């Protein structure tokens, strides 16, 4: 998922944390580093079961046609250049020559066409993020061995940006004769073949994944000899291993631990803003939650500044929508606000027909207002959910909270949509194009997990996709943000500051975002 989508080292997904390099010291080309992930990964960026536990690993193995530069703009990777037709319906990409798959086979246009035509665009396969691409791309045509055309059904100005966001290319030759790519266990769980700077050398289920450098990587021999990902679901255990020197980098899930990390002379703490927002999703398949007054009431009932202070220790700001302040050209702060106001929440619910029962729980048509709210044992999701449960209890709404493991949560909430409310987050490209998360066509099968549908919003998001010019895009996305703040497709919680802790011996990070830094992993090294 472009979700939760960032990755294991940064929440969504999946996410995005700048790293600041320390002063250069003498380096070694035989260094090794150890990172962390929360569960057994899936070595296939398009698998419906590949999310935060897999994303960053897949970045090292499966590059895309583009990657992001220091300004978070699309830069060449497996494609060296691109252009769009005058009507915006055809993008032509020139591919890099001389690229080898890690098994020695040549990379070419057939691999790109296979990845999209046979995997991503096949609706029946329900590829991870597939609805994002099916929304606009109809086919990828091979022009010659090193040129492909993306044929679109409607303009998509941000296509090169999305091609650099967890959109790795797969090897056609390895999938020959494979009828179900998600059941290709040898590839997806043990022996993937990629064109990235690293390749998988050892998988110990439930314990670790070891990647070694790919000496044939087109960008030059990586400086690190290997990168090992330990599988550690518990954030406290991750912290303990970082402090002991057994891990080189983690995303800090509990801000209370920052001072403890700073006191360790071998570690550095990096704070950054990024294009991440936390939310409570309300399933629009539940008719109770389609009433905008109910959604607004449930947000008025949550004291977000207090949650930011208690859960994030102040490392965040109240969210107003899906476009974060980091996007200065497009962020619109002048939208409807929802300060903590339980009285207003109760009044809105009363207008919607919800009245207190004898036990204080709101009722309508003789049925109590009880909301099923699953959550996962991942970083701060459980305390966030329990606080929301308490705030809603104060206005007479019962949240029935059940906690499960991360992979089960993904299946229940994201894949099957078996929930009524759930706290989570999105990490998205640093582009205002949020259509894949809100468009009506992405409900039920895509990243529109509340299954929210609004033709007016669809039209505004389409308008923003038609051009790359800043002014018309700003107008379209300002209007879209105003509509989303009023309608609340999601209950927006906050934009967090990302907190990354890493060992000072790890150097060579570009300091872009974590997702982008992993696209330049051949430059990493460790000091002697």
TrEMBL record:
Belongs to the bacterial solute-binding protein 5 family. PANTHER family: OLIGOPEPTIDE-BINDING PROTEIN APPA, PERIPLASMIC BINDING COMPONENT OF ABC TRANSPORTER. Keywords: Signal, Transport. Residues 73-441 form the Solute-binding protein family domain. The keyword Signal applies. Pfam families: SBP_bac_5 (PF00496). CDD domains: PBP2_NikA_DppA_OppA_like (cd00995). InterPro entries: Peptide/Ni-bd, SBP_5, SBP_5_dom. It comes from the Bacteria. GO terms for cellular component: ATP-binding cassette (ABC) transporter complex; periplasmic space. Residues 1-26 form the signal peptide. Gene3D superfamilies: Dipeptide-binding Protein, Domain 1 (3.90.76.10), Dipeptide-binding Protein, Domain 3 (3.10.105.10), Periplasmic binding protein-like II (3.40.190.10). This is Peptide-binding protein. The lineage of its organism: Bacteria, Thermotogati, Deinococcota, Deinococci, Deinococcales. GO terms for molecular function: peptide transmembrane transporter activity. GO terms for biological process: peptide transport.
């Amino acid at each position: 998922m472009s979700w939760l989508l960032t990755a294991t080292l940064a929440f969504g997904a999946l996410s995005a944390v700048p790293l600041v390099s320390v002063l250069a010291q003498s380096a070694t080309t035989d260094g090794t580093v150890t990172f962390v992930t929360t569960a057994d990964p899936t070595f296939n960026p398009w698998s419906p079961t590949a999310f935060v536990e897999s994303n960053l690993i897949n970045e090292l193995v499966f590059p895309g046609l583009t990657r992001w530069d220091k300004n978070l703009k699309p830069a060449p990777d497996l494609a060296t250049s691109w252009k769009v037709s005058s009507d915006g319906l055809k993008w032509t990409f020139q591919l890099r020559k001389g690229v080898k798959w890690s098994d020695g086979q040549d990379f070419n246009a057939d691999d790109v066409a296979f990845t999209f035509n046979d995997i991503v665009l096949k609706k029946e396969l329900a590829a991870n993020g597939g609805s994002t691409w099916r929304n606009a791309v109809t086919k990828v045509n091979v022009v010659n061995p090193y040129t492909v055309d993306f044929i679109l059904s409607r303009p998509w100005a941000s296509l090169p940006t999305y091609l650099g966001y967890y959109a790795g290319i797969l090897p056609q030759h390895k999938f020959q004769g494979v009828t179900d790519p998600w059941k290709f266990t040898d590839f997806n769980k043990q022996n993937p073949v990629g064109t990235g700077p690293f390749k998988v050398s050892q998988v110990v289920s439930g314990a670790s994944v070891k990647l070694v450098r790919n000496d044939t990587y087109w960008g030059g021999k990586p400086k690190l000899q290997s990168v090992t990902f330990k599988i550690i679901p518990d954030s406290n255990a991750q912290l303990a291993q970082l402090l002991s020197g057994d891990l080189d980098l983690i995303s800090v899930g509990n801000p209370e631990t920052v001072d403890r990390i700073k006191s360790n002379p071998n570690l550095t703490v990096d704070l950054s803003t990024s294009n991440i927002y936390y939310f409570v999703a309300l399933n629009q398949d539940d008719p109770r939650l389609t009433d905008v007054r109910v959604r607004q009431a449930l947000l008025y009932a949550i004291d977000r500044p207090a949650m930011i202070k208690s859960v994030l220790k102040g490392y965040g700001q109240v969210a107003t929508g899906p476009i974060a302040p980091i996007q200065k050209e497009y962020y619109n702060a002048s939208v409807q606000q929802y300060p903590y106001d339980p009285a207003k929440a109760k009044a809105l619910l009363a207008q919607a027909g919800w009245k207190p029962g004898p036990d204080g729980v709101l009722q309508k048509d003789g049925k109590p207002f009880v909301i099923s709210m699953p959550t996962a044992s991942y970083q701060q999701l459980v305390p966030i959910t329990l606080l929301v449960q308490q705030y809603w209890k104060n206005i007479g709404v019962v949240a029935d909270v059940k906690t499960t493991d991360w992979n089960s949560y993904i299946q229940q909430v994201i894949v099957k949509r078996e929930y009524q409310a759930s706290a989570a987050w999105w990490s998205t490209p640093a582009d205002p194009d949020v259509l894949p998360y809100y468009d009506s066509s992405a409900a039920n099968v895509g990243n529109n997990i509340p299954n929210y549908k609004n033709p007016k919003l669809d039209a505004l998001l389409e308008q923003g996709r038609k051009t790359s010019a800043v002014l018309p895009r700003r107008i379209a996305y300002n209007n879209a943000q105003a509509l989303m703040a009023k309608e609340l497709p999601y209950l927006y919680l906050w934009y967090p500051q990302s907190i990354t802790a890493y060992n000072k011996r790890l150097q060579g990070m570009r300091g872009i975002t974590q997702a982008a830094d992993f696209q330049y992993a051949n430059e990493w090294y460790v000091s002697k």
